Amino acid sequence: MYFANQPILPAVRQMKDFEKLLTSPFEYLVLLDVHIAQLKPIFQMAQPYHKKLLLHVDLIQGLQSDSYAAEFLCQEFNPYGLLSTKANVIIRAKQKGVIAIQRIFLIDNSSFEKSCSLLEKTNPDFIEVLPSPMLHVMNNSKQGPDIPLLAGGFIRTTADVDEALGAGAVAVTTSSKELWKHYADHGADRVKA
C-alpha cells in the first residue's frame, strides 16, 4: 500500500509544475495551494496519465477544511487520498475509502503528546511528520502508533531524502523541483510510472 517504491511525492503548488509532472515517471502527486475551481480540470488532465492525486484539503482555496469538504472531494473527484491536520477530515476520508494522511507538526513535547492523542482518534493510513528532522521522534517513540510515516518540510537535498527514508519514512513529500528532476532522471529504478 506504499507509494509503489516512489521515494518522493512531488508536492505541487503551481499549475505549470503540475502540467510538467504529468509526463514524469511519478505516479503519485500531492496538490497544494489549489483553487477549488481548478480541481475538475486538474483531475481531467491527470486521468490519461494515470496519476494518483493526493489533495491537501487544508490548502484548497475556496473550500473550508472540514468533514463536509472531505465528503465533497471524495464524491466529486475520487482522489487517491486526502491530507489534513484536521481530525474530522481524516475520519471522513477513511469512511469514504480514500487514503487518509494525517499531517502533524512536531515542535515540542506538548505537540508530540497532542499528536499521539489525535492519531489514536483518527487512525490514519499514513502520518506526515513535519518538519522532517523530527521524524525520529515519532519513529523511535514507544508512545507513537504503528502507522507508516511520510516526511515533509526541510527536504532540500538527496541526503535529506536518504536521511528521512533511513529514519523510517516510506516516502518524502517535497516541493523541490531539483529533487523532482533528480529522482525522475536518476531514480528510475526506485520510481515507477
TrEMBL record:
Keyword RNA-binding applies: yes
SUPFAM superfamilies assigned: GlpP-like
A Pfam family annotated for this UniProt entry: G3P_antiterm
Lineage top rank: taxon: Bacteria
Keywords: Glycerol metabolism, RNA-binding, Transcription, Transcription regulation
Keyword RNA-binding among UniProt keywords: yes
InterPro entries: Aldolase_TIM, GlpP
Function, in words: Regulates expression of the glpD operon. In the presence of glycerol 3-phosphate (G3P) causes antitermination of transcription of glpD at the inverted repeat of the leader region to enhance its transcription. Binds and stabilizes glpD leader mRNA.
Name of the featured protein: Glycerol uptake operon antiterminator regulatory protein
Species whose genome carries this gene: Paenibacillus apiarius
Taxonomic lineage: Bacteria, Bacillati, Bacillota, Bacilli, Bacillales
